[in-house]
Amino acid sequence: MLKTKIIPAAQDAYDYPLLIKSLLLSGVRYEPEQEIVYADKLRYNYRTLNERIQRLANALTAAGVKAGDVVALLDWDSHRYLECFFAVPMIGAVLHTVNIRLSPEQVLYTMNHAEDGLVLVHDDFLPLVEQIHDELKTVKGYIQLSDKGASATGLPVLGEYEQLLSEAASQYAFPDFDERSVATVFYTTGTTGNPKGVYFTHRQLVLHTLNTVGALGAYQGVPLLRSDDVYMPITPMFHVHAWGVPYVATLMGIKQVYPGRYEPNSLVRLYREEKVTFSHCVPTILQMILGCTEAERTSFDGWKMLLGGSALTLGIAGQAAEKGIRVHSGYGMSETCPLLCVTYLRAEELEQPMDTQLAVRVRAGVPVPMVDLRIVDASGNDVPHDGVSQGEVVVRAPWLTQGYLNEPEKGAELWDGGWLHTGDIASIDARGGVEIKDRIKDVIKTGGEWISSLELESLISEHPAVVSVAVVGIPDEQWGERPMAMVVCAPGSSLDRKAMEAHLQQFVDSGHINKWAIPKQISFVAEIPKTSVGKIDKKRIRELELAKVAQHRPG
């Protein structure tokens, strides 16, 4: 190890720990009257936010929550969620943001695996929790979250959230402790097995927050989140802390709008009435917004949107741009907290027409500061930075999860060789721009050639009649695999397999794709299966297609 010079600190010097409580200091100093809004139900200022966090800390302590205990939360995106983001880890406990869209069996597994002690549950999810209550091994009590008066339940409820806060003291002395203490845990689903617990420490969340402030606001090429913006998340708060942006927004003291349950028309009304300027979501949610009734009479000029979670196709990006939305792409994953890359537009690119800019805006972008990103071949060697050569994305950064909760063997696989393996195939150009080509598990191998499902999806999406599309590989006796496309068409449009083949033939003629990349099997459907966080569920699509094949197999 390199021998460096270390000078001892003064005897009484304060060794400042990176704790989530420090993120609360600046917002109330800069903008104490700025608002936190919960749909059409509630609004209050930053002074009240800080007081409510202290009241919640007292209420949790009175409920018996101690440092190291795990507190589960089942709620829609709300002010309560924001308050729990702070109060729970600030008393030294761990916040488990439960994925409310998992099956009851998976929710039960995650709550037992995390060893939840206290559960905060919205009335809408009482039936779910009542169904699994008898099988929850470590839960000792519940706090009820209500919007219209508490619903009746047979669960051992300690009280209703607002009632408990009103009775709690308004001051709490949040302690110092080790910045490497776990602050949050949530579960991510894979292609096989049970969901895996991803956890983050105070240090990781603070560093991710500080970095995201700079990455989204300091550069002219990424003008997404500044102090005068109005923020509304459209990524569930149970999923990677809504990409960590609520922590960023609170640090900055900007107006925050929490929409509750996602309903496209309500989201558009909130955008319009609260003058929202920045949001983030997955492409399928953006598509729902663009297609809703309220969108028909709404101008989205000035709405900056960060898209991630799955690839943003040129078709959806073009539709958004026509409505005035400024799209940027972000890249990361649950295990990376999540921000790794974001679209960066250089001065000359910002001067180009929007239809030219879109080719840059749909890519993963460039690694944000403090992210060490490599693209490596199967032997672990860096591929050329020529924008063509492909390999797996591996990364290092100070906010990446260090493993999976209670599953060391899976953590070792994630961190094989000292780099976090993303499972994504990408290329990188001479200027550091990253373009995700596919997931390793989703790339299609046909006749010895590799086909990117993401590239095919983007080309199919350019047809004006296509609303959404998913491409997967399905077994083929002759070629090993062949691409299969699932397509949703715009209402009233006419599109069939021959028309789609003709559309894709232009890209064969231009040399963009090979002729065997054109799917011979195209299903036109009303809806494409989605995961619990709104991404296209390719695992489910493959299962459905294989079931069809088995059903029609002789014998």
Question: Layout of helices and strands, plus pairs?
Answer:
Elements (H helix, E strand, L loop, with lengths): L24 H6 L4 E4 L3 E4 H17 L7 E5 L4 H12 L3 E4 L6 H11 L3 E5 L3 H7 L8 E5 L11 E4 H7 L14 E7 L7 E6 H16 L12 E2 L8 H4 L1 H8 L2 E4 L5 H11 L3 E4 L1 H9 L12 E4 L6 H9 L3 E7 L6 E4 L4 H4 L3 H8 L4 E2 L4 E5 L14 E6 L11 H7 L5 E9 L5 E6 L4 E3 L2 E3 L1 H9 L4 E11 L3 E10 L7 H13 L11 E4 L13 H15 L3
Parallel strand pairs: 1-11, 3-4, 3-5, 4-8, 5-6, 6-7, 10-11, 12-13, 13-14, 24-25
Antiparallel strand pairs: 1-2, 8-9, 14-15, 15-16, 17-18, 18-19, 19-20, 21-22, 23-24
Helix pairs in contact: 2-3, 2-6, 7-9, 10-11, 12-14
Q: Can you describe this structure?
A:
There is one protein chain. The protein is an alpha/beta fold and 555 residues long. The protein has a domain at 442-552: ANL, C-terminal domain (GMP Synthetase, Chain A, domain 3, 2-Layer Sandwich), CATH 3.30.300.30. It is built from 18 helices and 25 strands. Helix 2 packs across helix 3 (79-90), helix 10 (264-274) crosses helix 11 and helix 12 (314-322) crosses helix 14. The protein is globular. The mean pLDDT is 93.
